[in-house]
Write a structure and sequence with these properties.
CATH superfamily of chain A: Ureohydrolase domain
Radius of gyration of chain A: 18 Å
Order of helices and strands of chain A: EHEEHEHEHEHEHEHHEHEH
Structural class of chain A: alpha/beta
Distance between the termini of chain A: 16 Å
Oligomer: homohexamer
Number of domains of chain A: 1
CATH topology of chain A: Arginase, Chain A
Low-confidence stretches of chain A: 1-5
Chain lengths: ~325, ~325, ~325, ~325, ~325, ~325
């Protein structure tokens, strides 16, 4: 292991290379091959999984990593509310895109999962995957679970989404973008008793759509719970119950209202506003984040680019949570 | 009359026909000709009136029914907040588009009105018209008024709109998209004493723009009344005053802010958010809905499709109100 | 069988229902369930196969049938150059969309193929499938081959495309949108000795990309062959060699230049112009068309709608060829 | 009358006001109120008629003048092929927009026609109207016919269009965007024996769609006539037959292929390319142009702005024809 | 000086010229050359500065004035919340666009500043500049400061923005769109002790980004301060502290969330909603507004036109503040 | 120097990384830092100069390199007409973006020129710059001129453009996107006697716009010269006159018609079609290409992405010319 006392991310010098210049990487982080691990072990690697073969409605999220890399060029490192500079606090890198198998969720989970495990230093580097559809969460979750020492009960989960994504088989396939968390629960990667879902809303197919989640103990805060009822309080209680346990954060952009996030495959009206999302994420400061993903950005339905832009800000907020925990824990 | 004890809407089997497949109908409801009225009399028929010859600014809402049919493919039948499945509670159908006369509001009101009267079983089926510009409301309102037994005082009205739509003649024409409710009041279809307008806001031409409405007793809740003053309380008072009287609901998408509903002919900044709309509509649960329209979606100004999507969710919320009343009244 | 001496397609009366009105069907043809086969057996059925699970680059063609139905509303029935009215010459219908299995080319080929075989009167009705990606051609080709009496040598093929679509396995899958004609040749549905490809152009992966086709006898006319060399003459020779044998026509919209057809998954610059396409198709008058498909329209990349519009005109040109043959042969 | 020996158009000084600056006028010509008629009588006035109440399919051309004014900002005055500077040869002005009556073709023809007659010096100024739908041609044609001394046989016509626009009543209305030339012929404004139509193409409703025109002697050059047959020769013969008689030029942007002119209400594939249009217009050098219009630009369907840009270049080509005639005749 | 007892703005008669007709001016105000200053001295002149040579990321705001003029066509004069008609209370005019030097902020500040000083009656007319990027504020601020009698301490400022715009040199240039208020402070035009900034938010480059402002006494209300803390109260305190001193209002559209204002060069998620902006602006009623600008609208990133529309409503709200002060002070 | 007998470009394995995966580089070439110069000296380096500070109308070309990198992902290495594989014939690399100074053409020419000189092996590697506006050509031209041994008479030039780009000062600046070739001539980098311009067309400001070029001996082939006169023959004569002298090729995308290249800052109707461009470029096979640029792609005006796609194909055609010369000369 190396000296990580002063982790620092090398960002391009904007005096030479304005933010619109250069081969785009996530938030202008260096490519991971350009980071010297002896000097600065990568704390968090952001990488893409350009796969959308698990969708049930509109495809195209395979182009999400591309669009988010571009949109993230104007993301700067200092977080005003948290008063923290993520690039000074953490060593961050873009680990490129994982291999994929466009015709198969399982095969992609397999090759992307293996790839994820090889990123950076498995004993140190944490992983933020950028989709792609929500099925790609499985690969990153699996790699994270291994990096966390394969906890027997599975990882705690914080989940932003319009849909619960615990569906059973669709068109004969168990692996879809609607099922990653059912798979995660069944394969022991997730502890459903410590699983909090924010942003769920209707319309649904049937009242049973949420049954699997509820039966397994998933706690659901609908948009109405957040706005009109006790959703925020329940989130706080959940966070405090965690007691510094590692938490995986999975963020489906469709938790956000189509006004701010039109570019997604199964948009649902009445979602959270960006300000509400940021407030909720910032309320998680102190959480021990062990892995994350941001998924379901579909650039072809995003003519003004606001969805990819928002996704890049969500990545920033997530990394700021990681930085906050690092600062708190040294 | 038929046995309507188990009304049920036959939706396509998504295992065979995914939501992106098939000739598009509103919310994937069956075409009305494919519903056997002996077995399942249609409770609510949704149909288009593709007419925009009454606009004062930007035309194109004649393509609204097309766009909303497409966008509604992902609307599912179960309402999470109301805990009701509209397809299990009601027999629903797409009644196609009405004939129109593109060059004349009056002639269109005439042929569309006659057509509306012929849809389903006039003694049973209720009508939800999809515009088109707001002038099309007249035809549906008229047919509804007849189905309700031509109440002498006219129907009670719940109105979502940025504009009051009680204008006098424009360019020499009495019938425009700005006048349907003046006509409705003058022709006895509407009871202005039981007329509640939500979402009105400026800028206006003059202080007199709202005079006709106020003089006739229309109650106005501007966006600011809803957000900052007693708008919600006054709506509740209005609803409770109705005492189960039949109410016609007319929904102009421009009551919504352009961030969520850019695709409309006379957009007005500072409108309601989707979440506020849903909260207000859900507050009407219990209301005896007798007819409705959703109007002024202009697809050519809706590059991300969010306006048509929102309109399809509003249709769902409206039908959920109908389902709630059905469940309550048996 | 019925009296088909006066086949005629019932189109909506535009005096009542302008072209922008009504649930959209291909070219405003009646839905096949609304055609009385006893009176007018359907000569040609146009139907969608909304599947794009075989693409190698940009997905979204599953929404092709929707977009083409809409764009075709302004297609009228009289062909000026051929001096023929397709609706007076042929009984035409929209047969809806086939079922699909979004995650599998093979499974979709299976269910779509079975569905295709059931459309109309197998001994009489011919099939025009609308994609979807090019993999959907297989199902329609197979059904057509059966309707033609399962000819031992396979069907003659006329192919418009930027790519030859005779690729081997990709990502471990034999069935992709790049392989339908290799499969068709290997399964005996296609006679490669009577297979003419128009519009092929580079860049290619390697010089070997066209090897399979050339080895099996496929005749290729690149765009440059058409414009600068003897492509047109070779097409005429091919047509004359056919001697009234039934021909299947498969049309990938990417044979057209991106200026006129931007909305496709693998666009390639330097393609045919619309006028060239029409001239080439019209040169086929007299050909005994037995089946056809029009594929690879991707609406999300078609902001002005010109690609779907062109596809609808290509459908019209194809049906006009069918009408010409009918008129010639009685 | 004033000294017109040195007609000259005052254009803004781009050293102070770049082409993107300023309230937009057609080609940055001065507003007509800012031209001193004593010094420089306006030779040609360009003005808008923002009306689309006569369309049969997609509305929105009322915004054509706006979009074309903006797009024309980069039109410069020197014509390279004709070697002429229109601003040095002619006094040109933007005469603003005419009044309109949005709900009525007849009423608009009336008020716009009266307005047109009042523009500039009726004994000198010629008129180029910018639509709007094609129905607006009537008003400008009528005013031009009066300015030309009300010629008994009517004016000679050069017509670029995909459609012949000699239809009878539609939805009970004689005045539509499909009928201006039938009205012009019947009202004696047009001499159908000297009427040449370029760009006509199918599909049509019936073989009879062109009957009225042919019966009255209109000469038609379809796109195929221009490209593959003797269209160009026939145009030359027509021009030579005119013998310096005044000619009215009416240009519907839908004569152009949708690749170059997607933004129009009834686009038709297989149209002329921009280069072909320019070649044909330039072949008219020497023609005695007495009036013109450019119509049917629909900005909402023109996401890249190419249609309005092309329309602005067509205006330039038309004014260059006027300049050529001025130079030839002094 | 003239009789200004009945100031009144002449708006076009919409019975003749619908709102979509005519050469576009801001809010359809008359061009300033068409206003008779003897009769109606112009109270407020709105003019464009089409310059974007100071941007650090995405250019294109030079087209802002064009787009806002168009979008403002539907802005009407009566303000519902304030109960005031701006056109009856004030004489308003569009003063066209200022000259610019596209390659230089300084040179543009120079020529635009000189131009601004010449608009209307310097002893009476107040100036609302429409950008362009934020660097254009300097010219208008400077001209306003002179018109206000060159106050020694500088003007009080009310500032809506996502960024503080007090940066030092960028790429070797002191004048950029990020520095107008540093320049204004250093040149004595602005009193930083009476400078209130609303809408500031991260991410920032470093914690020092706000240092210059804070050191000079600028009061900052971040979006979170407005929503979650005491931002509104502090604004009220600031306003009350002003004691009728003249205030310059500068409004960067990027203070608004990208959902409502996507069309801007450096969009930042989590901004104010339109309703919040209006509420804050309306809370300023009574303020002695002496000048204003609205900047950073970038039409090429505004596919639905909502950003330019919002900017036009903000102009209306600003002019309504001016009208309120006029009414209060006579 | 290294063994360059088997130059070869390492492209990503599409079996692992589909063409939509990975940090985008031009045509998926390796980043130059990842090429081992000892083994494979880079023959041609493609790099971006993201600068648009020299434009006279619409800015935004600074985002050209980004968009072209993305669009080029589907460019494959085998050229069908030339029968050559560029990746097997040449060692190709993406050299990232050059530094720029966004506010100054001269400063950018300076830093970009210095950067260009440092790319690869100056004695071996040739340079293809991707703009950015046309002013960026100067830096690449200068570096190429040095690499070619600073030829006294300057380099021969092949120029595709709608404009001649030999303008004098604009807004007081000698360096603009309209002047790179005047500067190149005056600085001795270009031999105007061997300078061939293709695609020039009007409208122009005055007849003098081409005077500088003509006086210095530039040979101009307008679009009409190419299509209707002897343009192609003159190009052949020019090429044959070169006698293997090194030629610099500069390609402004606005030589192409807006139908195929809408996304550019000063589009001009009536340009070349893609097929014509390819035919002309292919006619240059045998030419000794020593450097090149592709400029003026403006992604914000390219909603369907066809302009960036075409630019990527032009890059391919240019590299194929280089490969042809390499094959011919060994």
């Amino acid at each position: 292991m190396s000296d990580s006392s002063i982790p620092r991310t090398r960002l391009p010098d904007a005096r030479e290379f304005p933010r619109f210049a250069g081969v785009p990487t996530f938030c202008r982080f260096p490519l991971i091959d350009d980071v010297d691990p002896a000097h600065q072990p990568v704390d968090w690697a952001v990488y893409g999984i350009p796969f959308d073969g698990g969708v049930t409605y509109r495809p195209g999220a395979r182009f999400g990593p591309r669009a988010i890399r571009e949109a993230s060029a104007y993301v700067k490192p200092y977080h005003l509310e948290h008063d923290i500079n993520i690039a000074e606090t953490l060593s961050l890198a873009d680990a490129g895109d994982s291999p994929v198998r466009p015709y198969s969720c399982e095969d992609t989970a397999d090759v992307a999962g293996q790839h994820a495990e090889s990123i950076g230093d498995p004993s140190h580097t944490r992983l933020l995957a950028v989709g792609g559809d929500h099925s790609i969460a499985y690969a990153n979750l699996h790699a994270t679970w291994r990096r966390m020492g394969r906890p027997e009960k599975g990882l705690a989960m914080l989940h932003f989404d319009a849909h619960l994504d615990t569906a059973g088989p669709i068109w004969g396939h168990t692996w879809t973008h609607a099922s990653p968390f059912r798979l995660g629960i069944e394969h022991g990667l997730i502890d459903p008793q410590r699983f909090f879902s924010i942003g769920i809303r209707g319309p649904l197919n049937t009242a049973d759509d949420l049954a699997y989640g509820r039966e397994h103990g998933i706690e659901i805060a609908t948009v109405e719970d957040i706005r009109l009822r006790d959703g925020r309080e329940r989130l706080r209680a959940f966070l405090s119950r965690l007691d510094n346990a590692p938490v995986y954060l999975t963020f489906d952009i469709d938790c956000v209202d189509p006004s701010a996030a039109p570019g997604t495959g199964t948009p649902c009206c009445g979602g959270l506003h960006a300000g509400e999302v940021f407030e909720l994420l910032r309320a998680c400061a102190g959480m021990n984040l062990c892995g994350a993903d941001v998924v379901e950005v579909l650039p072809d339905r995003d003519p003004a680019g606001v969805t990819a832009l928002l996704a890049s800000h969500v990545i920033f907020e997530i990394l700021a949570l990681a930085a906050m925990h690092r600062r708190a824990t040294g």
